[in-house]
Every structure is written in structure tokens, then in C-alpha cells.
Structures
1.
Amino acid sequence: MTQQITAMRLAAHGAPEVLKAETLDLAAPGPGEVQIEHLAIGVNFIDIYHRKGVFAPPLPVPTGLGMEGVGRVTAIGEGVEGFAVGQRLAYVGGPPGAYATHRNLPVARALAVPEALSDRDIAALIFKGLTVEYLIHRCAPVTKGDTVLVHAAAGGVGLIACQWLHHMGVTVIGTVSTAAKAATAKANGCAHAIIYTEEDFPARVAEITGGTGVKVVYDSVGADTFAKSLDCLRPRGTMVSFGEASGPVPPLAIGLLGGKGSLFLTRPSIAHYTAVRAEYEAAAQNLFAAIAAGVVRADTITTYALGDAAKAHADIEARRTSGSVLLIP
Ligand code: NDP
């Protein structure tokens, strides 16, 4: 049975204003799908890349947006096992389309969620927390006593990284654009906050580490920070370039990695670290355990009504937000 839903969609790539509310007919869930009513929806910088059309190839338009959410199951498609009508679930990935009151979702992306966690907490932490989970445990693992550099440390991913790494006994050097964000990062476990819009961050990292450099740089800023980040690494350190909030990283001559100390470089995506169902579930369990233990927390959340998605995008792009950003249907 079809039902009418409201979705924020775009007909062409562009500025936040291309996001418009539309009333649509949603078909019954197909084979292998569950239909959900969203309770809270996470906004991620990846949605901004999708909206702008900067990925190659860009998302075909017209399209919905949004890669994560928390919802309650309203209908079950043929062949679906393990989920029941009325059950709450969360998801990361699948076809973009979370910015909607309801949607159909491949059940392969659905995760059962602990009852104790609020809708807001899960939506604030599931995508960004799973990103941190794979970055610090599986992509470039670190351990007690290590020192790392986390760019945009007061952002959504950044704050969770500070919390989790601090708990593990890793010293976090973070970069932020303002003194207020420096205070937020420090309150979440960042030992040294560098205001990279005012200070030369490689010089500060050298000073903090006594000239040694860090084991890993987790760099989601891209164009503005990539080259200088290589100068922050110790020999045989790892450069994790996992985002491009300031623009794409220019082409690189790989000889540079040798000259700067036999460095490792990776450009990971959460898609490849959660593609295998068993890994996806194990990562979620790891995250839920960290949340239950109070290691990872949704202390800093900004919420917008679903219809204000364009404003949410504008605020994130203008670097006005800290922590996680949610849309509430
Ligand atoms: P954030 O909340 O971190 O927002 C982005 C932050 O980047 C801003 O707050 C800002 O912090 C900083 N920034 C630096 N330069 C710019 C600029 N020119 N324009 C805008 N922001 C800038 O977003 P998310 O937590 O949603 O995502 C963080 C990053 O992680 C993104 O780059 C995203 O693409 C990436 N990501 C990658 C994944 C992957 O698997 N590869 C998965 C999930 C996220 P400040 O003001 O302090 O400089």
C-alpha cells in the first residue's frame, strides 16, 4: 500500500536552498526492504558533498539526501527476517534518502539498537561513531601512549574521536577554528587544541611532541590541511585522509611519502569498512558498548526541523556547528 510522505529533495546540485520539501507517494517495501518512520535523522558533511555534486560521479538528480537515521518499522517486505513492525532500528548507508518522514531501507543496512539509548543519542552517534570506530580501531589503529592529530576536533566526528581516543590513553592534538571550539574539544578529551586559523599547526605539533611528530593524522579537512599534515607525522607514521570539508586534496607525487619519512597514506570510506554484515554488526556492538560505558557521548547536539535542512547545511558549511547535527521529522 502506498502512503504519502514528506521528503527534503533536490532537483539540481547547488547551494543549500536547492533542498525543498516535497510530498511523495512511498510504495510498500520491496523484497528485502523494511519501511520505517524516522524518529531522528543525522546530518553529515557527506550530505553536503552530495548536495553540491562534488563526488565523481555526482549523485544523479532529482534525489533525496541523507545517509543515516533512527526509525520505527512500519512495514516489512518479502523475505525480511529479524525485524518486526514496531521495532526501533538505526542505519548507516544504503541509498541516500534519510531526509524524509518515512523511507524504504534495505534490511542489510538495518541495526537493532539498545532500548536504553534515546533516539537523539543514536542519531547523533551512529554514523559519526561508526566512522571513528573504524578509523581508530581498524584503519589506522592506535593504542595507549600514542599521540595523534585530529583535524576539526570540535566537529561531529571530531568530538567522538577525542572522547574515544582519550579513554584509550591516546594523547589527542586537535585543530579547531575558534577559541570556543577549542574549549569544546578540550572538554571532550582533546589534550592540546590548536587554533589552525591563527597558528601554524605543524610548528605547534612539533613543539608539543618535542619534535617527534605524531603516529597518525586523521584529516577530514582536505585541501587546506593535507600537505602540512604530512609534516606533522613521525617517520613511518600514517596519514588518514578521510574527508575534504575545505575542498579536494590535490594530486600527490608518491615519492613525497618517502622523502617525508616512509609514510603510509590511506583514503578510507565507511562504506568499505561496513560493507560486510558481520563487520558492520561488530562495529555497531563496539560503538554501543562504548556509549553504554559513557566513553562516547552525545553531549553536543544541534537539532533542526526536517523542513529546515537547508539551514542545517548552511550552518555546517559556515563552520557554525560543533558536535552532531540532527533533523527531527
Ligand atoms: P563536521 O561537524 O566535522 O563539520 C566539518 C568541520 O570541518 C567544520 O566544523 C570545520 O571545523 C571544519 N572545516 C575546516 N575547513 C572547513 C571549510 N572550508 N568549510 C567547512 N568546514 C571546514 O562534519 P562531520 O562530522 O559530518 O564530518 C567530518 C568530516 O568527516 C567530513 O569531512 C566528512 O566528509 C568526513 N567523513 C568521512 C567519512 C569516511 O568514511 N571517509 C565518514 C564520515 C565523515 P572548524 O571550524 O573547527 O575548522
2.
Amino acid sequence: MIHFKCRQEYYPFSKIKRFIIPDEKVPWHVKFPEYNPPYYNDPNKSFFVDKNIEDQSFKPAWNAMDGHINRKSFMKPYTIEDGHPLNPIGRTGIKGRGLLRHWGPNHAADPIITRWKRDSLGNIIKHELSKKSILQFVGIERRDSGQWAIPGGMVDANELVSATLKREFMEEAVNALEKTPEEIKTFQSSIDKLFSSGFKIYEGYVDDPRNTDNSWLETSACNFHDEDSSIVGNIPFEAGDDAANVRWIDMDKDLDLYASHSQFIELVSQKHNAHW
Ligand code: RP5
Ligand code: MG
Ligand code: MG
């Protein structure tokens, strides 16, 4: 495995240029003596953000549950070099915490809501070439990059992944943060039903453009499938929070989604033996 999206020329929303790395020099074990990337910690400090490594009061428990923060990786235990955790895939062309909250792994959750594509009579539509049924998923357009993505988000401290999956879907694809409790009540049971049985499709590293040599995204991606569309039909989709748009997207190999999201969608299409 190698990463690409976190080796683009500029670090997102900054003027910082990443150090250029040939593909074969991405893995740490390949010698690269001239490697001298810039160091960047986003100055925007919120309550959730880890302190700088040099801060004497910052005593993280690496590769472990650190209080309510999960610093364990889904991959093998990561190495610490000069006090800094090392990206398990390799070099990214930039050191530091970048835009992410935590040094080391930043855990996210990605809910993949699916239904079959149907015609106006309710018949499932098959793809002309593959002759396989077309699966659709709920995608959002990210406000930060303008790219289409799964409506995922970060697992908060002390939050169960199952809760993150539902909360992020509610915030980004149903705009729940701007709905009254009465409005939410009208569709809450449909959401609960949809999220009552999920299938874990992926757990691991995400090639996210915000990754650095010392901090990176990992995710738990879970599929919630509505075989006869009876549940999703009751959900009033509306983009919210960090999403600018929401829509059903046909699954197809030509999809170009944010970070490694196309890879997760492909796994879902394989699971349902759908068109790809
Ligand atoms: C992705 O970042 C993860 O797979 C997840 O979808 C997302 C979480 O970050 P935010 O949406 O909270 O920015 O790569
Ligand atoms: Mg979110
Ligand atoms: Mg999000």
C-alpha cells in the first residue's frame, strides 16, 4: 500500500509545499537522506487539539487508549521517532500535526447508506454493460474541498464508533443540527431502523489530504443497506454542517471521491455483487 492524496503539491488550505517524494521512497525503510520536509502545526487551537510535542505537559500514551482518546492504530503499532509518531504508510512530504486534532491516528467513522437504483415503476435498474444491478449510496459534497464524499466524521473523545456513524450522518445528510426536536421526531425511528444493522466494510488507514508524517486519518466504514428502499424513503435528506450538498450517487468504477472513499465504495459494491 502507498498513499497519493496526501502527497499533493500543497498542504490543504495553506501555502506550504510538500517535499516531493518519488513513489519508491515513500516507505520509511527506504533511505532518503535528502528528505527535509517543512514542519506545520495549524495554529488554530481548539479544546480538542493535542498540545505540541515539545510541550512538557503533553504526555500522550502512544499505541494505547489515552484516557478517552484512542491512540491505537488499526494497523501495526506505529513507531515513535524523536517524540513523533510515524505515519504507518510512510513519508508525506510534511511533518507536524498539520490540520488534524491528534498526533498519530485520528479516528473517523464513515456511514455508507445504500439502496438499489430503481425506475419509476420500482424495478431495479441494471447497468447496460455489466448487466448487474446498480447500487446507490448517500454522498455529500464537502464544504472544504468541494469533492464528493461519504458523510463521515471524527470519533469524539469517549464516543462509540456506532454513535459517530449515526451522528455524522444526521449532521451532514439530514441537517439535524438545524432541526427542531419535533422535526427530528418525525424521522428518528427510520434512522434508528436504518442504523440497527450495519456491516463493517473497512477498518484502517485513509489516504486523506490532511495526513502528515506524524498524524493521519484512520476510519471504520460501515454499510447500512435498505434492500427495498422502505426506510430511506422516509428520511428527509438535506445537507448540513460540513456538507454543502447531499444526493444519491450511482456506484461505478469511474467515481472520483474524496480521500480513499472510492475504495470503500468498491468494497460495498462487491459485497452486494452490484455493478462497478
Ligand atoms: C476522511 O475524513 C474520513 O474517511 C472521514 O470521511 C473524514 C472525517 O473528517 P471530517 O469529515 O470530519 O473533516 O478521510
Ligand atoms: Mg461532520
Ligand atoms: Mg465530515
